[in-house]
Each structure stands twice: as structure tokens, then as C-alpha cells.
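WARN no homologs supplied; continuing
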Amino acid sequence: MSDQPAASTPATSEEDVFEQKRVRLEKRDKLNAGAALGGGAYPVSVPVTTTIPAVRAEWGHLEETPGTESGATVGVAGRVVFQRNTGKLCFASLQAGDGTRIQAMVSLAEVGEESLAQYKELTDLGDHLFISGEVISSRRGELSIMVTSWQVAAKALAPLPNMYIELNEETKVRQRYLDLIQREQARTNVVTRARTMSSLRQTFAERNYLEVETPMLQTMHGGASARPFVTHSNAFDTELYLRIAPELYLKRAVVGGLDRVFEINRNFRNEGADSTHSPEFAMLEAYESYTDYNGIADLTQDLIQNAALAANVGSDREGTHVVKWADGTLFDLGGNWDRISMYGTLSEAAGREITPATSVADLQAIADAEGVEVHLANHGKLVEELWEHFVKDGLTKPTFVMDFPVETSPLTRHHRSIEGVVEKWDLYIRGFELATGYSELVDPVVQRERFTQQAAEAARGDVEAMGVDEDFLRALEHGMPPAGGMGMGMDRLLMALTGLGIRETILFPLVK
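OK structure emitted
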């Protein structure tokens, strides 16, 4: 039965949908008016005794012997995704939230003439239906419930899309609930994300980190170079910013003696949206006292590899770091990941030596020759843009790109042995940046100088530059221990684990 198409496919034209809604509204009214039909179209509860997945787990073996009876009576509920009504025997497929299905058989012999007639008249595809009866194997060998009683658990007024025709991309994003009903990959994405978040928290717990929460509404935007969303507080009659990063508050926590802290929460950046960027996104940031960017790179590798293990639970790759992307590609996140030099790889790719001492004029000449445009160019921005032009797209396997220009990293400690460079890395996987890590700048005097430089950049028209955060500087003046910190996009982590674009990894992405 489950391999056959639906007896009637819901219409898709606006006219037909309107007519279906009109008919379903009439059925809703009849359900609400019929006291004998339980709690109406939307009862407070139904007497479920188990779940569809649990019934399959316990009685799935019956399918090996068609026509078998279990002698066990259960009460389950699910969404009707298939329906075939015949004379004395009606069939339906009920689907649980995880996509597991079971067949319902509603017969004249078991429910009686009146109940069967009401079932045919009042139920539709898309309804949530409660059924009670014996678990059996049908003559075709399909695990089923021979219904002795039924009740509408929630009446669907809008028809489902055809369950056998995949939704277009626009509908998948705008009506994710339909995507979750219809498509296994959509449901799998949610499960993988939940397992990933649980794994990250477990890894942190094993390392004695504390999970904290910091403000999303801030009086100054900082912690990253990005354009913020601006709002207004009526209560305080002041302009506020949706945070672009939690960094400066997490560092305040470290100053206060919380030596290992992390936060997983939302960030907001008023910038473009594409396959790897979303204006609203989930971010992990973590800070650990008495380590540096090498130690924090080790932590990041462990976090991601443990997440891969969690994502593989129940698959044929369980216990490995090899993830399977949605297109079937196998991608290995195991082993120790390469750590390469930004300046060294840029020099090799450009065919000439580029160092922190290379002049802006020389870098601009290379950019002009390559057709690379750099807004408000300085040494650091030119180096990073040229590196992305020459090197980035060739990085497929996980790679830490080490040691960035000082001009683009205002919150990062000077490199301990290379002048003009800071101890920062970016982690690239699949050609996109997944995470970034620092040896944190904890000297309040140098930090003030960096903030002042940023303010100058803002005055030149750089809308992403930070201002001088006096309250954060005041915190640093009370002494912050040596520390390493990192930030990682959760949506991008899911991209690395699943091979999907960012709009697939976010359950409800922002759309225009």
C-alpha cells in the first residue's frame, strides 16, 4: 500500500485550494458539532499509549510473516499522508514527526457502519489522526493497526502538497513546515544540528568550561568587523545595536575570574546574504585562560571531530570522522589538520615574496593586475583580499591559516616573533571560513591604540570598524590573564558536516 500513489492528489491551483479549504471548514464544523466524535476538530488531548516509531521497533518483525496478529492493542497518532477509501475497508498511512509511518486499516467489521461513514466523510490528507487497535501484519506483509476506534486529533484546513513531488526551493525555505513533513533530508538536518549542539556542549563540559549568556542588545557594537543592525530603546531613549559578536562581554567574564567560558547564541550582521552568509546566524565563541591560539586550534579540532562522531551515530560510518554529504560525497574530518602561513602561501601563489613589510603601493599594484578591488585599502586588507583571490578556493580539506596582518585584527595579540603580524588563525573547510581563533590581546594600552585606529578607519567611511569601547578598556585595566579565544559559525559547521548551503542548515532562515 505504501508504494502506491495517493488516491487523490491535492490540487495546487489557488482556486482548487480555496475550494478544498471551504470543504474542510465544513468538516471542521461537523466535527465540532458532533459530541459523539470526541473533542471536536481540535481536542485537548487524545489517549495515545505509544508512538509509531516504538510500534515499528517492537513489532516490525511481523512484516516477515504476512497476515500475522500480535494480540497487542496500541493507541497512536500521526499525520495522514496517504488515504484510500473503499467500500468496507479503508487504508491510511500515518506519519510520525520523524517520518516513520504505519498503515491504519479502518474496517466495517471493527468500527461499525456509522463510524466508518464518519471516517470517510470527515478525514482528509494532512489531518492528525488518533487510532486504537491491534498491531498486525496485513496480507501484503505491511505492519498495520486494525482500527477499533479513531478520532481526529487536529483537522488540517489547508491541503498538503503532493508527497511524491519534491517542493521547489522557494517553498522549502518559506514553508519549512511542509519541507519537514515531506522530505527526509530536511528532518535529518534538524536531528544532525541537535546532535551537533549537544556534542559541542559535552566537549566543553569535559574541559570544565562554563556556558554563559551575554547581551544581544548593546550600546556599542564590537567584537568583530561587521555592519550592525541599529534599533532604539524607548525605555532608555537611546540607540542600541543588535550584537555582531559576544566577544567583548565574554572577555569581561574572563577578567572576572571565569577562566573557561563559552556561548552559543545568535549574532546579527547587516550585510549581504548568500550561500555562506545569513544576516542572522548562530555563533559559538569560547575563551580559555592560560592558553594561546595553538591551544585553541586544538580545542576547535576536537569540537568539530566530536561533532562528526555525533552526526554519524546510527549510520554505517558510526565511530568515524568521515561524514556523508547530502550529494553522497564522503568527507574526512579526521586526523591532525594542516596549519599553513597566510603570507607564505600568498607568496607562493603570487609568485613573489609578500611580507608584513611589503608596501601598500606594491600590494595595490598586484591587486590591480589581478582585478581585485579592495575598499578603503590598507596593507592588511590588501593582503587578505589577495590571499582569498590566490589561495582560498584551493582549500578543501580542513586547514588552519595562521598569522594575519595586524591592521585587520584589532583584538589580537602581536605575534611573539614576527613583526607586523598577529597570532590569529582562520579555519577553512570546503573553501569557506568556518572558524577563527586568537591569542587574545589583553594589554589595555595596546588595545586602546587599536580601538583608536579602528575609530580612524570608521571616520574614513569604514562602516564595519569598531569604536572605542571605554567600558571594555576599563575591564582590561583590571587585568585579563593570557588567553586564547575562538569563534565558529554553527550554521557553517552544519554546512561542513552535511555539504549543504546555509539556508538548508538554518531551520527558519530569513527570506525577503
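DSSP finds 16 helices and 18 strands in the chain.
OK
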